[in-house]
Amino acid sequence: MDIELVIVTGLSGSGKSIAVAALEDIGFFCADNMPPELIRTFVQLILNAQDRKKKVAVVTDVRVGGSSFHELFDALTQLDAMNCPYKLLFMDAADEVLCRRFKETRRKHPLIDQYGGSILDAVEAERNILLPARQIADYVIDTSDIGATACKNRVNALFLDNPRDIMHIRCVSFGYKYGIPFDADLVFDLRCLPNPFYIPELKRLTGLEQPVQEFVMRWPQARELEPKLFGLIDYLIPLYREEGKSQLVIALGCTGGKHRSVVFTQRLQAHLAAKDLPNDLNHRDIEK
Q: Are residues 265 and 283 in contact, defined by beta-carbon separation less than 8 angstroms?
């Protein structure tokens, strides 16, 4: 079947929400708190949909009820009968870590009412319910000693074909007279370079046209700036990727957003593409 299905389960407080967020960032369609008996129906609906999702993840755990959760194994048998491949991801953490997380966040454990308000007893009971699922899991991520970023990185390493695709880069040119892009992560000011606007034959052109490109890159300031600027960006990208950032917006600005910023943004996009880094291009103010 032309579908990649991940079933996420595990202990409450172990990081399932972080795992789901990571899966969504890399293109999975995610459904949370899915009763096991509905998994087969849900998958069938996905397969029958005209705009079929290629990557799907469902989360099921004891929030559906301990007795209902045991139906997960019937659901897995049904998926096998459908010849629908799947991977079972189990999120785990030590009991004392889970208890501490619930106390720190002041969230209510889904089983706590059944155990007289004891978090530890609720965690232990949940672990016993989930033990059979952990034993057959394809992947287990223990978050006892790792933070959210490391957890996301582990999910990405498991389910991303190319780890370099974890972060998408947007290259944006803009004009300062219209304001800095509100979603920009990195902003570089190119108003220090000679301005083609003051050349009559170039004024009405844009940085997409060769005469403007030749003018901008004619100057030693631009030729010296380019490797230094791109070198800094090359250095920063892996740091942002390791931090778990899913999108990086790099904005390059000049006065009107038509000439210098467009030229450098075009060249930056080509530079990133040559390194096989996922990116797109937007000249925000070129038509203004």
A: yes
